Amino acid sequence: MKYLNEFRNGDQARALASHIRKITTRPWSIMEVCGGQTHSLIRNGIDQILPQEIEMIHGPGCPVCVTPISIIDKALEIASRPDVIFCSFGDMLRVPGSREDLFRVKGNGGDIRVVYSPLDALQIARNHPDRQIVFFAIGFETTAPANAMAIHLAKQQGLQNFSALVSHVLVPPAIEAIMNAPENRVQGFLAAGHVCSVMGYQDYHLLSKRYGIPIVVTGFEPLDLLEGIRRTIEQLERGEARVENAYERVVTEHGNERAKATIAEVFEVSDRNWRGIGTIPKSGWRLRESYADFDAEKRFNVSHLQTSEPKICRAGDVLQGKIKPHQCEAFGKECTPRTPLGATMVSSEGACAAYFNYGRFVPLKELVRG
Amino acid sequence: MCLAVPGRVESIFNDHGTRMGRVNFGGVIKEVCLAYLPDLEVGDYTIVHVGFAISKLDEDSALKTLQTFEELGLLEDELQEMRDLGGES
Ligand code: SF4
Predict the structure, then answer these.
(1) Less crowded by CB within 10 Å, the N or C end of chain A?
(2) What are the sequence ranges of the domains in chain A?
(3) pLDDT confidence of B89, banded at 50, 70, 90?
(4) What stretches of A58-108 show up as alpha helix (H) in DSSP?
């Protein structure tokens, strides 16, 4: 595919890696915020061709992983109702709630439909005027334009039988939370290219300055990741700290203004609980008052639920980069993609799933460096 | 969910008043909402998230980035050659 295969060229990847090896004189820890980038790093073995001095710390940017268990439980409750058609992105179906997951609810007769686009849920609402259609609107800034547009159109078209269960999270407050943690080891960030394709990167200048860290907007293909790492290392080695865009073909400084306008019309900033991490101030979006009629939490009155997480699961530590997945006691034993204890083992962007699927069962140093 | 690959816009149409397009991802065609990119034209490449085109792929900077990699690759080859020769003498 054009503009894809070129960025997967193995020879050039090796050349970039060898260049990185040459410019690296000291140990550095870099966080890739986005779970999609974690998967690409592990799947393509980029962690294995980097010099030993560079540690990639995997960040919390997996929307499925950080959706709070209280919201998952609400989704399960709503999806079990006979009058509801519950529409969700496919990744959410196996995410464990306190007692079960959406997949189980579906098996027990719940009408749960996997949609590719939120607009599909609108179409289902138009086709079934006698049913309640609930769309599970989760994600980072990347999915927000789509989710906001669906809700906006539902209002515009007067779709009475459509509502959304909203749980949106934002990247910049998560970066702040990571940098403010006393045990933080992160010295530079790869900013998630697709989040920036929506929001731009002007918000990152302040963060880079405040914490004295390089932030490099980075894409998802092997060469993109290596280039993001190379630019971060160059800054670190020179003692510089600024925002750079290594994903220029897709990202501009201000992002997509139209998308941001629709998001701002439908959503407002709110505090948000991140699964395994806790509440981060001003780190999410919720529906504005003017869209309260489309709020599934209000329509179905599901605020009384008791939640419980398995004690053994350390997904919170994984998401904050405190441990690598294979350092969790349950990894590959009680917890596998077939029997996930935490959301990080389920999602296609979760670090535990990446480590399991690509065979990272022992620390990298033992694996490749003897 | 945040992973997305570039696709080529094949055609543009209107659905319930919303600007839509058919986008080709290496042979797989998907219907995609173009409301956020009013200037996108047939033949352009775009990055799509959950059914929405979010940014137009800038072909010039794609080529520029690839050229940088190319030069870096050549440089690495030359350096490697110099190292190899140096090792023999
Ligand atoms: S391996 Fe399983 S139990 Fe351990 S942190 Fe990851 S999801 Fe939780």
Answers:
(1) C
(2) 11-360
(3) very low
(4) 63-66, 69-79, 102-107
**pLDDT less than 50: residues of chain A:** 367-370
Cβ atoms within 10 Å of A185's Cβ, excluding its own: 12
Tell me the pTM.
Answer: 0.90
Q: How many other CB atoms are there within 10 angstroms of residue A209's CB atom? A: 12
Q: Percentage of chain A with pLDDT > 70?
A: 98
Q: Which of A314, A320, A329 to mutate to test the pocket of ligand 1 (most atoms within 8 A of CB)?
A: A314
Residue whose token pair is 């970039």: A16
**Domain range B5-84, CATH class:** mainly beta
Contacts of A196 (CB under 8 A, 6+ apart): A217, A245, A247, A251, A255
The helix (run of H) or strand (run of E) holding residue A245 is strand A243-245
ipTM of the complex: 0.88
The Cα B32–Cα A117 span in angstroms is 8
State whether the beta carbon of A60 lies less than 6 angstroms from ligand 1.
Answer: no
**Is the predicted pLDDT of residue B1 greater than 60, yes or no?**
no
User: Strands A243-245 and A215-218, how do they pair?
Assistant: parallel
Q: What residues of chain A, 134 to 153, have a C-beta less than 8 Å from chain B?
A: 139-140, 142-143, 145-147, 149, 153
Subunit contact B50:A146, Cβ cutoff 8 A: yes
What CATH superfamily is the domain A11-360?
HypD, alpha/beta domain 2 (3.40.50.11740)
Report pLDDT for A5.
84
**CA separation for the pair A262, A219 (Å, rounded):** 25
Q: Which residues of chain A does B53 touch, with a Cβ-Cβ cutoff of 8 Å?
A: none
Q: What is the CA radius of gyration of chain B?
A: 20
| Both tokens assigned to A328 | 């969790």
User: How many angstroms separate the CA atoms of A257 and A261, rounded?
Assistant: 6
SS3 state at A4: coil
From B2, B58, B73, residue closest to A36, measured CB to CB: B2
* Model confidence band, residue B86 (pLDDT cutoffs 50, 70, 90): low
For chain B, the structural domain boundaries read: 5-84
Per the prediction, chain A carries an average pLDDT of 93
Q: Of A149, A40, A134, which is closest to residue A92 (Cα–Cα)? A: A134
